[in-house]
Amino acid sequence: MRSTVALxxxxxxxxxxxxxxxxxxxxxxxxxxxxxxxxxxxxQPFDADAIDKDVHQxxxxxxxxxxxVETGQQPDGTEVIFNVVDAPRPEQHKAPPGDLHLRVKTVNxxxxxxxxxxxxxRALRALKARRIIPRVPGLWSGWRLLPDYSPEAVESDLGRLxxxxxxxxxxxxxxxxxxxxxxxxxxDVTFFVRSGPRYETSEPxxxxxxxxxxxxRNAERHGIIDFAATLYVQPSADSSNAVNLTTGIDHGPHYRxxxxxxxxxxxxxxxxxxxxxxxxxxxxxxxxxxxxxxxxINQAEMFDxxxxxxxxxHTNEKTGIADITIHLKERKRGSWNLSGPVGPxxxxxxxxxxxxxxxxxxxxxxxxxxxxxxSLSLIAFAQPLVPVLSILPKGTLIPVLAFxxxxxxxxxxxxGFSIVPQLGWQASAILYATSQIQHRLLPLLSGxxxxxxxxxxxVEGPNTTGTMVCEPPAPRFMPLRTAASFGVRLLSVLTGL
Length: 497
Known about the structure:
Elements: E1 9-10, E2 24-30, H1 48-60, E3 64-74, E4 77-86, H2 90-93, E5 103-112, H3 117-122, E6 130-133, E7 143-145, H4 151-167, E8 174-182, E9 186-194, E10 200-201, H5 205-221, E11 227-235, E12 242-251, E13 256-263, H6 270-274, H7 287-299, E14 311-316, E15 321-327, E16 334-339, H8 345-348, E17 351-358, E18 373-380, E19 397-405, E20 417-419, H9 424-446, E21 455-461, E22 464-470, H10 478-489, H11 491-494
Parallel strand pairs: 1-3, 2-4, 5-9, 10-12, 11-21, 13-15
Antiparallel strand pairs: 3-4, 6-7, 8-9, 11-12, 14-15, 16-17, 17-18, 18-19, 19-20, 21-22
């Protein structure tokens, strides 16, 4: 059921323009324990505009479904009472019953959004449908993958919508969950949005975000891991529709790296894994370089993917030292694979079946056998798109025995090669060159995308309290980078691998 929103001001006495406004005797906020800094204060003259600002501030929290203001005239002043009712939250009465699995079919916007709903839907992440097959106007509506419904997903995108309005200068906007309808398999989510006026800012908000992201990056280079940014919004004296923006930074102490430890190493040496790190003991703790180091370990494909939960920091404020523990889980020693082309074999590759196994943990350095893999493959219908570049012999069924050392960023030129006796040194050279080109160029083309987290910024103003998310910019020339990445990946197809 859609919540009813009511706003009423009840005055027990009218005060003429010529008379002196009464003083406020008491201010009461009923119906919530939320701490709100109200403009209306005891001892101040009664001001209806100040009360209206307080109502806007309460609406902007998105916590309430009904707000009513009552005033009462007393001999020694005026009583002001704010009566609020919490808005119904999805997790209180809209959780899927039992183990029912629901998909979000539609997301709607009610009220006065002020922004094109298409743009609002682009801001969604958890509730956004993914288009698998593009639509053809007039012929085919396409195929979309609907997102899973959960109260956490709704709350997450609710925060993103609030952030979008703040980033566009709608500092009085109200965004809250209006209604959630659950059916047998689908869920329809409706957000209530009242944008309010759009303010002119003293500085473009994207420029503010760029500056804050740059300051955080500079702090990371000097070992600061606790970084909090605040954006202060103050009315401008020049115009009622303009605001001045200032920023404040609060950060923690600087840390240097103490010890770097690994857990879960059974078949690989500490030196092999440590060679992928871009940080070292005694250096400033640079979180971006630490995330890049984890990404380099993931590229080696020796362990299950490392996430932020896999890295533990043990800090000591007194000494300024932070120890790092990286939890690793080795992948299974053996594996099998069966793959076939999606489309013509000349373009999408041959039909291939293989079994592989990691060698025993003997040796060190280049001869560390656990970093090698032995595989036996059967390749059928190998018809490369460019036969001149093919490294495979002609035949209907081709057996291939190979000893490979997968590419490891820390090992560089000493990895990424395969020894294939029946194909000769020419094939091994082509495999080596292809592997080096792919694994070296692809990270450069993708840049730091996915490695730089968003920056939450607290927004504070007379009528505003919220969180705005500053997103890191995409690498320059991204369309060209994407096309180049596709070309690099096409190398294996051209050689018939």
